[in-house]
Amino acid sequence: MIPFVLTLVFWGGATAAGVVLGRRSVRSAAITAGVCAFLVLVRVFLRFHPDIEDAVFPWDWYVPAHPWWVFAPALGAVAAGAGRMSTPVARIGVGVFAVLLFTVATRNLALTVFADPETYTGIADRRGDVRQSTDHSCGAAAAATMANRLGVPADERTMAERCHTNAFLGTDALGVAHGLRATLGENWTVRIERSTWDRLATTPLPAAAVVKFQLWVDHWVVVLESEADSVVVSDPAGRVRRLSRAEFLDRWRGLMVTARRR
Asked: What would the pLDDT profile of 160-169 be if each residue is shown by its tens digit?
């Protein structure tokens, strides 16, 4: 409950600051909106480059916070511009947009903060593979599979908590890496890496990989074996199967979470 309230206060403060700075002058409003827009673009860039985000923000507290801070500059930009709209209709329109943005953000935050851990029921089979029990927990299941294959027992629920899995974003690369670090311990180095087919031969396996699923929706699988013309993957939504090089490359985002013994 406390993180939920603090986040709402943070968003409210950013909105209030945008209103105050926007009313000072046209120049102040433009600078405020510009800085806020830049921060939003930074978050969008980091969303598609989690390897960079993980290196720049290595702190544990950042993992649960990183999906939400972008709403503060977004609300600040809207608030700064609202008072400078030339007509009442435009001001009302911007105000309605701000309310909708705040409502959507609050709903998604609530889905995350008040998520029920009992939702995630996937457990390891005899090989250590874990199947996802919801439509958004493939990352947690993949992380659990990877940990089990490395000799550290894990289930979907435990990894969902450690990876900060939620119904809004599922589990992103920062979450998977964080969950594996917490589970594997100090004897392992967990990294988010950009990779290529040629580098798979030297990549420590098993490794979690991001693949395309639907438009704007990705999926996690665990690469178990790599050969010259194929890979063997454990799919949390299905089974262990072999994919040809063409099949895998057609879906793979080139992003992996790996673990190496120190």
From this structure: 999 998 877 7
Look up residue 148 and give its two tokens: 């089990």
- Residue 193 confidence (pLDDT) above 70: yes
What is the chain's Cα-based Rg? 21
- Among 27, 58, 23, CA closest to 192: 58
Angle 164-190-129 from CA coordinates, rounded to 5°: 65
Q: Is the peptide bond before 206 cis (omega within 30 degrees of 0)?
A: yes
CATH code at 133-261: 3.90.70.10
**Sign for the pseudo-dihedral over CA of 194, 200, 203, 209:** positive
Structural domain spans, the chain: 2-113, 133-261
Query: Phi and psi dihedrals of 4, rounded to 5?
Result: -60, -50
Q: Encode pLDDT of 167-176 as tens digits.
A: 777 899 999 9
